[in-house]
Amino acid sequence: MADSEALPSLAGDPVAVEALLRAVFGVVVDEAIQKGTSVSQKVHI
């Protein structure tokens, strides 16, 4: 998931910042909430 390319600067571009935050939020919701509360997923300790 990690790329070796540098991320572009988001300074002064609220549309780009919002797009980034929406993408991050989508990953968090998918990984932490949906998969984390699914009875079909194994528990990792």
Task: Report on the architecture of this protein.
The two termini are 22 Å apart. The chain is mainly α and 45 residues long. It has one helix at residues 14-34. The protein has a domain at 13-38. It comes from Pan troglodytes. This is CSAD isoform 10.
Task: Tell me briefly what this model is.
The protein is mostly helical. It has one helix spanning 14-34.
Percentage of residues in helical conformation: 40-55%
Q: Which percent range describes the beta-strand content?
A: under 5%
Structural class, by secondary structure, is mainly alpha
Task: Report the span from N to C terminus.
Answer: 22 Å
Q: Which spans of ≥5 residues are poorly predicted at pLDDT below 50?
A: none
The number of distinct β-strands equals 0
Radius of gyration: 15 Å
